[in-house]
C-alpha cells in the first residue's frame, strides 16, 4: 500500500517532487521519499494533463442525439457519463493503477474549485472514491511552501463541496450549451443564415456578449446635441488662470437668460475672489492585485488581453516568482507580510527605485486575514527574478506586482489642492489647482500614465478684486465609448447595477458574472466564435454577434440576472445548503422554456435576418441565376447549393486575396478590373483580370 499525491500537470508534480529528499522518475509518475513526510513511507507523485476525464458527447447517450435537429431536442441524459479522451488514456491508466493501490490519496491539483473537480473526477473514474483523501492547499510553488503544506495537510472532506459545486457548473453548462447552441443554430440556419455557421450559446458568454452589444447600441444610436459652456480668464494681482461655470447650456436662449439675469456680458467683467480653500490631500497606495485588477491595469497600460495576462502571471507562478494567480482577493495575512518585509530591499534593487519603504505598520487595507478565504492577493514570492530571464511582457507584469506590493510599505502620496470660486455679479466660476507635495508610493509607478494635474493657481486671497474675461465655448455631447477588454473584465466583475436587489446581492457576493479564472477565457471564446472583434483595444460586435443578441433578447440568456441566480444557487451547493439534483432539475425547466420561446422570437426577426443575408451576398449567382453568391468564410458559394447549384468562387487565387469589390464586379459583369500582385508557381509576380468562362474562374491578360 502507498500514498499517492495527485497533481494537475507534470510541471506541478515535478515541483512537489523537488520538495522531497530523494526522487526516482518513472513513466507517468515520480517515486519520492523523505523522513519528514508521511512517516518516511514511499510516496508516488502522479498527474493529469488538466482534465483527464470529461463529459461524453450526446451521441454516446443516444444515436439520434448526434444529428442537429429540432426533433432531437432537448438533450437530457438521465445520468451523466464521463470518458477519458484517447490522447490521455495512457496517462490515465498510470494514475488509475497508482490510485487503486494507494492507502491514502493527497489531492494536489490547483487550489480552487476546478482543481478539486479535476482531481475528484479522476479519482471517481479510477474506482478509488472510497479511499481516504487529504488535501494539499498552498498558494505558492516555492519549495518551502510545499514542504510546509505537506506537514499541514487538510482533510479532503472539507473541500468535497467545492467539487460538487464545480461539477454542477460543468454539467449545467454542458446542458445549456448543447441545447441552446443547437436550438438557435438550427432556427437561424432555417432562416437562411447557414453561412454564419453554428451559434454557440453559453451561461456566461451570452450575457457578456449582450452587455457589449447594449453599449454598442447606445453608441450607435446616440444623437449628438450641441451645448455651450461659460469660461472665464481671471486676472488677479497680475497673474492669470482659467475658471469655468459648473452648468452647460443646451440652447442659446438658456445661455442668454443666465447672462442677463446676472447682468454680465461676454468679454471683460469685474469679479471678486469669494472662496479660497486649500487642503493637503493624502492618498494611500493602490490595493494589492487580484487577477481582475491586474488584467484591467495591464490592458490599460500595455493593451494586453485578459487571457494573455492570465497566461503570463501563470507562467510567473510556475517559475515560483509570484503567488497563485486565480485569486479574487486583494488582501494578505500576517504570514505573507512577514516574508515580504524581509525581501523589501531585494525587490527595490530589482525595480531600481529609491523609495522610502520603511513603513512596516501596514494597515488592514492590505493585511486582513479575516478577508482571505481560499487565496490571498497576487504578490511576489521570496524568490526574486533575474531580469534577463524574463520576456518583456513577463517583466512588465512582474514589475507591476512588485510595485503594487512595495506600495503598501511606502509613504502616502500627498498633494495640495486649492479650490477657488470667483464671483462675477452672482455668476460663480470655479477652478481647481493641484501641487504635488510628496510623491510617496507614486515613485514606484514611474511608467504609468500620468494623472492629469490641475493648474497651479497664483497667489491670491479671499476678497481680492479681479478682471474676468468671459468666453463662450461651443461643444457637442459625445456617445458612450465602446468597451476595451480591460473595461469588460470590470464590467463582468461588477455586473448587476440594473438588476433587482436580490440579484445584485448575489452578484456582489460572487463578484459578478464568470470567475477570476474564466473571464479572460470567455472573452477569447467570443472572439473565436466571431461574435466580437477587437480593433485598437476596442471591442466591436460583429453581424453574427448582433444576430444572436437579437435572438436571445428578453430571455435569461441575455441578462446577468441569469448568472446571478445560478451563481447564488451554485454557491449554496458549495456551502452544502442545496443539492446538485435540485439545480439540474431547474436547468431542465429552463431548457424546456427555451424550446417554446425561441422559435417565436427568431420568427419575429425577419427584417434583421433578411438584411444580414443581403449584407453577406455579393450578387446573383451567374450560373443558376436564381441563388445569391454568399460569403461562406473561406470561399463564396451559391445559396442554391441545396437545389443542386455547385457554383463557387475562392477568396484567394494565385497567392492573392481577391478584394470583395472585385468579387462583386466579377459576379455582376463576369470580369474584374486589372488586379495586381498575383504570384506564379515560381514566385514571380504578375497582373491580370479574373473572368468567369463556362462556369469556371479564369485569368485574362487582355
General description of the model:
- With 702 residues, this protein is an alpha+beta fold.
- The chain folds into five domains: 2-152, Rossmann fold; 168-220 and 481-603, Topoisomerase I, domain 2 (Orthogonal Bundle), CATH 1.10.460; 226-284 and 413-476, Distorted Sandwich (Topoisomerase I, domain 3), CATH 2.70.20.10; 291-407, Topoisomerase I, domain 4 (Orthogonal Bundle), CATH 1.10.290.10; 616-700, no CATH class.
- The protein has a seven-stranded mixed sheet with strand order 2-3-4-1-7-8-9.
- Helix 3 (113-125) crosses helix 5 and helix 9 (306-318) packs across helix 14.
- The chain is globular and about 90 Å long.
- The model has no long low-confidence stretch (mean pLDDT 91).
Give a brief outline of the structure:
Helix content is 37%, strand content 22%. With 702 residues, the protein is α+β, with helices and mostly antiparallel strands.
Amino acid at each position: 500500500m502507498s500514498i499517492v499525491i495527485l497533481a494537475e500537470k507534470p510541471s506541478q508534480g515535478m515541483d512537489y517532487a523537488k520538495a522531497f529528499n530523494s526522487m526516482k522518475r518513472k513513466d507517468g509518475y515520480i517515486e519520492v521519499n523523505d523522513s519528514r513526510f508521511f512517516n518516511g513511507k514511499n510516496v508516488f507523485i502522479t498527474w493529469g494533463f488538466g482534465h483527464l476525464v470529461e463529459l461524453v458527447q450526446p451521441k454516446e447517450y443516444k444515436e439520434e442525439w448526434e444529428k442537429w435537429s429540432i426533433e432531437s431536442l432537448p438533450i437530457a441524459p438521465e445520468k451523466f457519463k464521463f470518458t477519458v479522451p484517447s490522447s490521455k488514456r495512457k496517462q490515465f491508466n498510470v494514475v488509475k493503477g497508482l490510485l487503486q493501490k494507494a492507502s491514502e490519496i493527497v489531492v494536489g491539483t490547483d487550489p480552487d474549485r476546478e482543481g478539486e473537480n479535476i482531481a475528484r473526477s479522476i479519482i471517481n473514474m479510477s474506482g478509488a472514491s472510497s479511499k481516504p483523501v487529504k488535501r494539499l492547499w498552498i498558494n505558492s510553488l516555492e519549495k518551502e511552501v510545499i514542504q510546509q503544506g505537506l506537514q499541514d495537510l487538510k482533510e479532503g472532506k472539507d473541500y468535497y463541496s467545492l467539487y460538487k459545486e464545480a461539477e454542477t457548473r460543468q454539467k449545467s453548462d454542458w446542458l445549456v450549451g448543447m441545447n441552446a447552441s443547437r436550438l438557435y443554430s438550427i432556427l437561424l440556419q432555417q432562416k437562411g443564415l447557414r453561412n454564419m455557421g453554428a451559434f454557440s450559446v453559453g451561461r456566461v458568454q451570452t450575457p457578456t456578449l449582450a452587455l457589449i452589444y447594449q453599449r454598442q447600441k447606445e453608441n450607435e444610436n446616440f444623437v449628438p446635441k450641441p451645448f455651450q459652456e461659460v469660461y472665464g480668464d481671471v486676472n488677479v494681482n497680475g497673474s492669470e488662470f482659467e475658471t469655468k461655470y459648473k452648468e452647460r447650456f443646451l440652447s442659446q436662449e438658456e445661455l442668454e437668460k443666465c447672462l442677463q439675469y446676472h447682468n454680465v456680458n461676454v468679454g471683460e467683467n469685474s469679479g471678486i475672489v469669494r472662496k479660497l480653500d486649500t487642503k493637503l490631500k493624502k492618498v494611500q497606495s493602490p490595493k494589492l492585485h487580484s487577477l481582475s485588477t491586474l488584467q484591467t491595469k495591464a490592458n490599460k497600460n500595455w493593451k494586453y488581453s485578459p487571457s494573455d495576462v492570465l497566461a503570463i502571471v501563470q507562467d510567473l507562478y510556475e517559475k515560483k516568482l509570484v503567488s497563485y494567480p486565480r485569486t479574487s482577493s486583494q488582501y494578505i495575512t500576517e504570514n505573507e507580510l512577514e516574508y515580504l518585509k524581509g525581501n523589501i530591499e531585494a525587490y527595490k534593487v530589482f525595480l531600481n527605485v529609491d523609495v522610502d519603504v520603511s513603513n512596516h505598520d501596514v494597515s488592514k487595507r492590505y493585511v486582513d486575514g479575516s478577508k482571505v478565504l481560499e487565496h490571498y492577493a497576487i504578490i511576489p514570492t521570496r524568490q526574486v527574478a533575474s531580469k534577463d530571464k524574463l520576456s518583456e511582457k513577463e517583466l512588465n507584469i512582474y514589475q507591476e506586482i512588485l510595485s503594487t506590493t512595495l506600495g503598501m510599505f511606502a509613504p502616502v502620496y500627498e498633494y495640495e489642492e486649492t479650490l477657488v470660486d470667483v464671483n462675477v455679479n452672482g455668476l460663480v466660476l470655479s477652478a481647481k489647482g493641484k501641487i504635488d507635495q510628496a510623491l510617496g508610493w507614486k515613485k514606484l509607478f514611474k511608467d504609468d500614465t500620468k494623472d492629469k494635474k490641475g493648474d497651479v493657481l497664483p497667489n491670491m486671497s479671499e476678497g481680492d478684486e479681479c478682471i474676468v474675461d468671459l468666453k463662450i465655448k461651443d461643444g457637442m455631447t459625445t456617445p458612450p465609448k465602446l468597451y476595451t477588454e480591460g473595461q469588460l473584465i470590470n464590467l463582468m466583475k461588477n455586473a448587476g447595477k440594473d438588476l433587482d436587489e436580490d440579484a445584485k446581492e448575489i452578484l456582489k457576493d460572487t463578484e459578478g458574472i464568470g470567475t477570476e479564472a474564466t473571464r479572460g477565457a470567455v472573452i477569447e471564446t467570443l472572439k473565436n466564435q466571431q461574435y466580437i472583434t477587437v480593433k485598437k483595444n476596442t471591442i466591436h460586435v460583429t453581424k453574427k454577434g448582433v444576430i444572436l443578441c437579437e435572438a436571445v433578447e428578453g430571455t435569461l440568456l441575455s441578462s446577468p440576472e441569469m448568472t446571478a441566480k445560478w451563481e447564488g444557487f451554485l454557491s449554496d451547493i458549495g456551502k452544502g445548503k442545496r443539492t446538485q439534483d435540485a439545480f439540474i432539475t431547474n436547468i431542465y425547466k429552463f431548457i424546456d422554456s427555451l424550446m417554446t420561446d425561441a422559435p417565436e422570437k427568431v420568427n419575429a426577426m425577419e427584417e434583421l435576418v433578411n438584411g444580414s443575408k443581403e449584407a453577406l451576398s455579393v450578387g446573383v449567382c451567374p450560373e443558376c441565376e436564381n441563388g445569391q453568391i454568399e460569403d461562406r468564410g473561406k470561399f463564396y458559394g451559391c445559396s442554391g447549393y441545396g437545389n443542386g447549384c455547385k457554383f463557387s468562387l475562392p477568396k484567394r487565387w494565385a497567392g492573392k486575396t481577391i478584394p470583395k469589390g472585385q468579387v462583386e464586379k466579377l459576379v455582376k459583369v463576369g470580369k474584374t478590373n486589372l488586379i495586381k500582385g498575383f504570384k506564379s508557381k515560381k514566385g514571380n509576380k504578375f497582373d491580370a483580370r479574373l473572368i468567369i468562362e463556362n462556369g469556371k474562374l479564369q485569368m485574362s491578360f487582355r
